[in-house]
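Archive entry: two folds, one per protein. Generate the first.
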Amino acid sequence: MVSSTLLKFMYPPPSNLFVIAMSAISIVSMGNAGIMELKGKHMQYSKLWNFGVDQKIPADKKAKIASKTGMILGYTPAFVAAIGSFFLVPVGDYRFDLLRSAITIHFFKRIFEVLFVHKYSGFMDTEAAIAISISYLVYTATMIYSHYLTLGFPEPQTDLKYVGALLFLVGISGNFYHHYLLSKLRTKGEKKYKIPQGGLFSLIICPHYLCEIIGFIGISCISQTLYPFCFTVGSAFYLTGRSCATRKWYQSKFEDFPTRVKALIPYVL
């Protein structure tokens, strides 16, 4: 009953063992990363660099690189893979091209923001930068490959690709807008953190993460295959944990942090 209902909204699950394994790995690994964030074992980048529980290796002993360099390293391979798919697999249907375009735009935006929007003041763990880079590359390649396997299959009964495209545009626009607001908090050369203002920051401390989840839901709806949905669920788990950790960080740094401001979902969480 449940499986027949799901098949109205999704392509049949792939018989490819790699894609099935990666679907499970996405949920488990990213869900675990979200739990680690809640426990204080943070991915070592941004304001949560060396924040929380004691680390096994002191901060001054870790291999580290500038945050800007680390973020470029994190996003570029996935961006190249997304663009490369158009040349490696030039023949595809409209849904496939829409999916690849959304993924390409997603990572282009991230690189653009690193170069021209974000203001960085710290470092990130080199191992974290490499892990992020490999993860995004693998996730991107798997997402494109998993949809490639559906080419020639009948479309799902319920077509969600246009709803997905709309959600993707809403998510990526909202994410960019709130990143822009964050960038305006500090003037050039200023390193002091401030409580974000404007947009949805009056309700939640991580509206950019909420919008990112909406964008990932959009990509899942464009594809309507198993792996993107699993990736989206895993990402939601991780970003929820990261949001809660970020709120805790602000509470530790600012005595006047408003208690009404939640982590990720207005009035709820």
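Generate the second and append.
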Amino acid sequence: MKSNFDYLDNFYVNLGSRCGMKDSREQVARMELFRCFKQYADLFCKTDSADLLKNKTMHTMLQVHHARQFLEMRKADTYCGILNCLSNPMSTEMMEKIARQYEFVLANAVDCSVKEKINFIYVKSIVLNCIKPGSRQLQPYQKLLDLLSQVLRGQIPLSDNLPLHFIAVALLWPQQHLKPAEPRSLGRYVSQMRTSYHAVMKEVCNGKRPVVHFFMGKKQGYERLVHLGELKRCVRAGQEPIASMWGNGKIWKEKEVEELLCRVTGEVQGNLILADTCIPDVKIEITPMFRSQLSGRAVGSKVSFFIGFSMKGPLAIDIN
């Protein structure tokens, strides 16, 4: 039952309409999914352990168990559930509580999994920073990168490949004042992400595009990842819906959006683009969101674009 919930969440969170945005027509199905999950959580995510807590030798073990149950009830035990917190309103207090629960699990669980470490990175680096940038739960950016590098060096279960390489590409993309230890590994992570995406999504991705979860902004550290919600705030009242502006490309011409996002240069290589980075000899393959934007462009011609991060890999948007 839990596997089915996770599978459907993966579908709804990571795949959208043909323009690369979440499809509002699926809202009814998602509400029904939430209703069913609530019934599941009421039955399987609660443990009456008052008597067991009196046993001091089991106290910490039970606290870890309760923390994991809390995360499962909040759908924060999967990277999809964590990403979904950005689209669905959640109080900053609840997001900080989720972060504290993960800190407790990582510090006290003897069987802490790779999945939990990855989820912790998602909570800290992406969601909490977007919901409450000044939160005391945020730790130094470099410390988070160190944890990410540690996870990347270890054994990675196949089921964790996609979320790990997504966050690795988004966080380790070279920055002017903060270069990753092995920037040349990014190309390999992008390739592995594409392979994992097709393996996980091959049965359901027909007619769908991967959702762009983040864009690369001009700032550094935590603030470099820009969420769609920030772009929505750039659209003035009275303008057409953001979904329409996304589809016709008008959103990328908004002055505030242009000031927020980082325009990157690159070189056309067939159906792909080799994106330049701040490290001269490191270039990363990027897929255009719409291949038609590369039609008629000769191999080797220079282009500029914004970068969007999706589970299928980084995408080139608004190619000029």
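Annotation attached to the second fold: The first strand starts at residue 15 and ends at 16. Strands lie at 15-16, 209-210, 214-216, 225-227, 263-269, 272-276, 283-288, 302-310, 313-317.
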